[in-house]
Every structure is written in C-alpha cells, then in structure tokens.
Amino acid sequence: MNIRHFQKGDEFEQLKIYNTAAASQHRFKPASFVDLQRRIQARDFDVATRWYAVENDAVVGYCTWQANGRVSYPWCLPGHESAAEPLFKQTIHSMQQRGVQKAFTAYRKDWPTITDFFVTQGFAQIREMVNYVLRFENLPTASSRVGNMITPATPEDVPAIYALDPSVFRVGSAEALKKELWENPYFAPTSVYVMRGRGDTTPVAAGIFITNSDYADARAVDPAMPCFRLGAFGTEGLTTKRIKGLFSFVARPDRAVHIGMDMLGHAANLLTDDDEILCYAAQVATDAPALHAFYEKVFERQGSFPVLEKTL
Predict the structure, then answer these.
(1) At the N or C end, where does the chain have fewer CB atoms within 10 A?
(2) Are 1 and 83 in contact (CB under 8 A)?
(3) Are the beta carbons of 267 and 247 closer than 8 angstroms?
(4) What are phi and psi of 291, to 5 degrees?
C-alpha cells in the first residue's frame, strides 16, 4: 500500500469513497462533486493536507486535515478498512511536521463508530457545540440598565473584548480576534457591537448579529450536523455554516446571564423591514458555562455535536 498526497483526479475517487463508506451512517447526506470541487479550487487549497491510500494503482481511502487542526476520519472502501490506521497516522504525522499542536475532530454524535475510532487514537471529548433558535415572539423583555450604553464596536475595542473571557475564543490573541472580526468576508464589522460601562467607555460585553437574509434559516438546517456557525464566538478560524439571524455575545462569566438579555434586545433593534429574518439562531460551546447557561435559559435547544481533541 502506498500513501501519497493529492493528485489531479483524486477528487472523483474521494467522492466515491465517502459516499460508499459513510452511506450506512445515521442520516447520511451524500457529498456532492460541486462542494468537493469548490474546496479543491479554493485559493488556499494545499495538496499536503490530503492523504490517499493506494493499492494496485487504485485509491481505496483518504484522510484530510486543515490548518486550524481539524482532522477527518480516514474513510476507506469496504474491504480496505485495514488502510485506515496507517492513513490516519500519516495524516497526524504531517500535522506535527507542520507545527500543529492540537488536533480536533467533529462528527455527529449518532455516528458512534466514528467517535470510537478517535477515542482509540487518543482523542477525548472536551466540549459539545449546542445549537439554538429563538422566535421573536418568544423574546423575553430586556431589562433597562441606566448608564449602560450599546454602540458599534471599533477596532480599538478588541483588546478589551478579548479580555472579557479569553477562554471563549479559539484564537490566542486580541490581534487574531481583530482579524476575525474586521477582515471576515461573510459579515461586516458593523455586525459587531459593544456595551460600555457606567462612566467608562471600556466594553463590558460584545455582541454579533448576522442579518444577511441570503444565509440559511436555522430551522431548516440539521442541528446535529457538525457545522460551526458563522459569527458565534468560539468558532474563530474554523470553517463555518452561514446562518441568518445568528446572535452571539461574550461578557465576563460572572455577568453573562445578566447582560445577555440587553445584548439580545439590542440585536432586535438592528433589524430593518428588508431583513427576512423570523428568529434568532445561536451556537455555544459547553465549556463556556456562563454563556451556555444563558442560552439554555432563554433559547430553544435544537441539537448538538461533540468536539474531540488531542494534543500532538
């Protein structure tokens, strides 16, 4: 068996392998050639992040990884399952060579054989990503806090935003967070706002509200699919699903539950008559307990998926 990088034409074999090997999984959704081709033609596509197992000149398995540390399951054609482990080990080795310090993976929780494979490889579940919706007619009344002012965020606010709770973010610095918020091609910086404290302009909370009506409706998306949602704090640097009406906020953990309603109420004020949005959507990680408690209290839980990690 030979394990090699991507070569032209492998995309056809990869599609066949996945749609064959994963077909028996619960609520399986076939991959499309259009989606696969879009990834391969992306400007940042890197052949070194895709590995293929070849036997007798035929591609029988593949495994991929991303610069953010996300790694796929080593999918193999039936009868060639023995290629999975060496294929995965080669993938992890290449991540280590490129300086990736932590690998993670995310699949549906009702695909237990996939999760079991990663556990045997030393991965452990460290969080769940929980998806929520909230219809506008069910929005609780926000409190009125005299002296708290909500304004558009500025780049100068980012260090204070990051300092509110660094454990929430998936980037390691305020500068990296600034790039995520001010250079994101899928939402404008005007989607970001902050609450400023009494007698002080320092942010005590920050919020994001995605109002692009062309994005998907959260009620029509399978909430158990391992898709990180665009704009949710804690998904920085990840491949994301674009959801309209996505609301997210961050505050000091001891104040999150109290401030959340004000941040949510302000999002409603940002809507215009042209916005075709009928509900809020949200996503939060369970290892951000204060934020998780807010969404559990105010929003309707849709579904969730596990995230497993391993230090390399």
Answers:
(1) N
(2) yes
(3) yes
(4) -65, -40
